[in-house]
Amino acid sequence: xxxxxxxxxAGGRSSRMGGGDKCLAMLHGQTLLTRAIAxxxxxxxxxxxxxxxxxxxxxxxxxxxxxxVIEGQAGPLAGILSALEWAxxxxxxxxxxxxxxxxxxxxxxxxVARLLSARKGAGAPIACAxxxxxxxxxxxxxxxxxxxxxxxxxxxxxxxxxxGWSARHGAAQADFSVEPFxxxxxxxxxxxxxxxxxxxxxxxxxxxx
Length: 209
What we know:
This protein is 31% helix and 22% strand. It contains six helices and nine strands. Strand 7 (126-131) and strand 8 form a beta hairpin. The longest helix has 15 residues, at 76-90. The protein is globular.
């Protein structure tokens, strides 16, 4: 998508998975990060990785690595802000950032197109995905022009919830079906990973981008 920077969010602590980099967990012979790259890259002009700590562990994946610009593990909003500010400084022609979670291995391959359509249809500045009546706020489309507002929300108001900030500006919803499965299945525990492995192992079902 012309003018859209994609950011894969991998800056969390992964405490429920025992710590470490959840995105490097293996699913059906691939890391979660490899799967996320394959799904996200065709949907955007350029893809970066938001991750903290030693960047060397992610160099084999061939992405620009952008750490949080806000200290203190401020959550997904910090990753979104980091991408917005990186785009503003390094890619001034980009108007929006699309965010993807790296621990959601089956997210839709038409996600960004659907977010753009929802945003246009609602006349809203922001769009987020939804499935099964639940908003999936980490999967969103964010205007670079709101970087300053988000920085103020994080640093001056200590805001941490994606939904709280997006609601201020108006967020359209792109709704996705949960049949035959929820494409936003999130890996938060070893049990979740096992459930995803069962899904990925179903014959004749295409889970690839």
